Amino acid sequence: FIWDEQLAHFARPENGGYRCIAPSLRGFGASSSPTDVEAYRAKHLVQDLAALIAAESPRAPLECLVAHDWGGAVAWNLANQQPQLLKRLAILNSPHPGAFLRELQHSPAQQAASQYMHFLCRPDAEALLAENDFRRLFGFFDTPGGSAPAWLTDAVRAQYRALWQQGLTGACNYYRASPLRPPREGYDSVQAITLPDSMLTVNVPTLVLWGLDDPALLPGLLDGLPDWVPGLQIQPVENASHWIVHEHPERVALELGRFIHQNP
Question: pTM of the prediction?
């Protein structure tokens, strides 16, 4: 539902009249939610998205795949593995896997910012997240001063609460299945990971729209991206956090519109 405004915007004739779809990834909402952690490995998530594109756009590639956070992680991989399925890729605050691996291995600041991932891998994470009306989950939205942001209205809270009440295991399994976690005492497996350029190169035109005040994904993740993404445009956004789609829907629509209507 975070995409509702964007779906309505780009479906209007004056904005392109596109057919817009925002699926729930596996583990979320009405989509299937396997309990096995292995079911959330990248290869399965990419297959889900490829199958959806084949079903919804069988005769032509997507005009643009737009993705945020974990959706972006899947989209980076899809664009690398099956670029014929899309004309353009737009990423919002979701790190390129090569940059994320580099920063987790070498950046103390990013290592510190990503420590929350270990909490979400705990076997009791679901129970802890659900306590006190999802207090910890709503806390992820807080501003640096510790207050709730203006966009988190009672109506939006109700949407999130209804989603989370359907279960949190799928969401936590994304973290449990990922090998990209920051080092800490007793866990430094990430230091042994290498990713070849063949798994990192994206040759479709790509826009990266990045809220610079994201506390979990630092601006250093933008460094070096042109080495992997030749057709790259980066749009950093001041006074925007990880929740840029909620915070600045008009700016997101503007930048996506400019990008989508460029000649590929």
Answer: 0.96
